[in-house]
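TASK: fixed-backbone design
INPUT:
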């Protein structure tokens, strides 16, 4: 996955080169895909599944990332958990002169189908396709059951679509395929004014969120957080620390040691010291990777 050989880019107007991808994700120092997209470690993705939107949002805000969350979705599952590495694409209304060039270059590359298929064909395990379809809720038709099956087979995750999709019944038949979109409608993308993909793995907007290729997608019931790759490890570590603090707080409240105001507000030094001692007592119960993080703290 870390080869420096750059694959041929799809014939779209806005595709970052490997060097550009590395430049625009310069905070990330880990493994990358051949095209330069960050490949956040599988272990981080697995731990991210236990993080809440609020926990991720708090850490990102501390780093001045204020536009990484979007709510107001239609979701396929009652309690969804969607985690994976973002593959981005964005659409504009169809424009024939640009589309002609794209089509000609696609023929030279031997590509079949249309622009969105070329993006979907490049997906791999644990990717999440994130598409800005202009919030087109009727006539967008980003995918139906056929393409949903293909995406599911390639990624094992789901999709985030700022626009519409179709064939809800067929998509719902994919038990573990989680979709966040804006509307289900039987119309196809050719039923109304057409659209075209102009960008692949470039920065896009999903509602009020800024999304970059390689972000870790965290989709839960309330909404979707897009975690920049270089902050993914900190997000999970801080979330796990918060969860420990909550566990400690619940125990102490139940025992009547502290009041709700003491636990819910900023902790005074005696409570902090009590928590730190409690962590030392239970450290062996925790996963080894979490133990390593805690033992690196200056208070441990």
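OUTPUT:
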């Amino acid at each position: 996955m870390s080869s420096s050989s750059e694959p041929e880019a799809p014939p779209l107007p806005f595709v970052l080169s490997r060097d550009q991808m590395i430049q625009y994700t310069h905070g990330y120092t880990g493994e990358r895909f051949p095209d330069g997209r960050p490949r956040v470690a599988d272990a981080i993705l697995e731990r991210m599944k236990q993080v809440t939107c609020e926990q991720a949002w708090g850490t990102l805000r501390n780093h001045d990332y204020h536009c990484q969350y979007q709510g107001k979705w239609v979701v396929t599952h009652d309690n969804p958990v969607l985690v994976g590495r973002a593959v981005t694409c964005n659409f504009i209304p169809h424009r024939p002169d640009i589309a002609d060039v794209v089509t000609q270059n696609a023929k030279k590359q031997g590509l079949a189908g249309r622009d969105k298929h070329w993006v979907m064909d490049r997906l791999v395990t644990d990717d999440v396709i994130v598409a800005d379809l202009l919030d087109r809720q009727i006539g967008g038709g980003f995918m139906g059951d056929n393409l949903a099956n293909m995406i599911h087979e390639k990624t094992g995750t789901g999709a985030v679509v700022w626009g519409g999709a179709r064939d809800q019944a067929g998509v719902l038949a994919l038990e573990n395929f989680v979709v966040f979109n804006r509307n289900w409608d039987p119309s196809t993308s050719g039923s109304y004014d057409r659209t075209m993909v102009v960008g692949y793995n470039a920065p896009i907007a999903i509602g009020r969120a800024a999304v970059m290729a390689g972000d870790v997608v965290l989709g839960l019931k309330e909404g979707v957080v897009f975690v920049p790759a270089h902050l993914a490890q900190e997000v999970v570590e801080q979330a796990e620390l918060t969860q420990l603090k909550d566990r400690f707080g619940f125990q102490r409240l139940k025992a009547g040691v502290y009041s709700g105001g003491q636990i819910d507000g900023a902790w005074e030094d005696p409570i902090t010291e009590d928590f730190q001692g409690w962590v030392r007592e239970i450290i062996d119960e925790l996963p080894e990777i979490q133990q390593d993080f805690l033992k690196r703290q200056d208070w441990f």
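COMMENT: The longest helix spans residues 232-254.
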